[in-house]
Amino acid sequence: MKISKKGEYGLRAMINLALAHELGHDCVSASDLATADNLPLKFLEQIFVALRQAGYVDTIRGKSGGYKLGKSANSITMGELVRLLDGPLAPIPCASKTAYEPCSCPDEDHCGLRMLMIDVRNAISNILDRYTLAQVVEVTLRKIRRNKAEHFFLRKEAPAPVRGPNHDPADPTQGFLAEWAASDDNA
Fold it and tell me: What's the sign of the alpha-carbon dihedral 87, 89, 93, 98?
């Protein structure tokens, strides 16, 4: 499974919207959300149409208008958002629960590829459906505060990202589950 740009931008914006809410911002402009993560504003506005229609965000009109969460961040799972923005989680249609389509395999019930892809779908689903938007925000804020990092919604200007000389962008110790486990150890 690969998240599209629509899915990536929508998830990043929803995390930032919930993070801004947690930091006391009742309403956030589309421009600020776009600036916070260097996202294209027009594309983000199109994504927010789908999020608003599904009830995940509300709009506030006027000079100081913008977006706010339409539901509690505790009631929104990351899996719901991914499915809304990018569709089914299954890598192939014959392994999908929500968008099943038969494949060309002559014996689908005994197809090794389908069985493997069902496990892939289940693994992805088990993680995305287990964690809420609020939990992602909690872990994000904890890491920002622990590292004394800057964040757009903590100050007026967004800082440039700071990365060490040996920065590995796919380091598993930098992932959400590693941060979540660290919080369990400290609790």
Answer: negative
Shared domain for 110 and 153, answered yes or no, is: no
Q: What is the dihedral of CA 130, 132, 136, 138, to 10 degrees?
A: -120
For residue 104, is it within any domain?
yes
- The whole domain housing 27 covers 5-76+132-161+170-182
Q: What is the mean pLDDT of residues 5-9?
A: 96
Q: How many folded domains does the chain comprise?
A: 2
DSSP readout, 74-137?
GG-BHHHHHHHHH--S-SSGGG-SSS----S-TTGGG-HHHHHHHHHHHHHHHHHTT-BHHHHH
State the CATH number of the domain containing residue 13. Answer: 1.10.10.10
Q: Is the pTM of this model over 0.90?
A: no
Mean pLDDT for the chain overall: 87
Q: Is the confidence at residue 164, as pLDDT, over 70? A: no
Q: Are the beta carbons of 102 and 108 closer than 8 angstroms?
A: yes
Contact between 107 and 98 under an 8 Å Cβ cutoff? The reply is: no
HSE-up of residue 179 (Cα within 13 Å, Cβ side): 18
Q: Is 161 helix (H, G, I), strand (E, B) or coil?
A: coil
